[in-house]
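Many introductory courses stop at the sequence. We go one step further.
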Amino acid sequence: QARLVESGGGLVQPGGSLKLSCATSGLTFSRYDMSWYRQAPGKKSELVAYISTTGGTTNYADSMRGRFTISRDNNKNVLYLQMDSLKPEDTAVYSCHASLAGWSGIVYWGQGTEVTVSS
């Protein structure tokens, strides 16, 4: 049974930083493309960042590019999201997503971790 568990969320002031982690188990982590999504209150879920199986390819939503950094450790089976220069509009529940590379429909989600950016 695949399991994704996010951690690292919390309350931070505007301009601050947080690093989210997504610990995985029950899957061959290195075979999965990984992403971070977020959902703000009353809004649709949106893609934050994507990283390929090897980490060789990353993509970011326009509003996060330059402020957020996605990375992964295939030895530890962990996905990360470093978030800098946080803004109040970054307040959301952040969830990690795993998609088996080359196989559509085999996906897993974490339960999410809440990030609140407020003074």
